[in-house]
Design goal:
Rubrerythrin, domain 2; three-stranded antiparallel β-sheet; 0% helix; mainly beta
Length: 77
């Protein structure tokens, strides 16, 4: 299962959660304050290949956060 990043609008803390693809945008409580005013954030992904390193910022709902750590076309662009 992928690791998703969330931000709490109540305490401004970022936290991660391991969730299935179908749960990615479901409501989740903040692991710091327990608040329910949270949103999934944009994640960054590092990919190494052919003697180069690529940093890819992904949009919500697709990309490196859902491809098991850099094994998709989004990470190698």
């Amino acid at each position: 299962m992928p690791i998703y990043e969330y931000i709490c609008k109540d305490c401004n803390q970022k936290f991660e959660a391991v969730r299935s693809f179908s749960q990615a945008d479901d409501p989740i409580k903040c692991s710091y304050c327990g608040g329910e005013n949270t949103n999934r954030t944009v994640s960054k992904c590092w990919a190494i290949g052919n003697n180069s390193v690529t940093l890819s910022a992904t949009s919500s709902g697709s990309g490196c956060a859902g491809c098991s750590g850099g094994n998709c076309a989004h990470c190698h662009s």
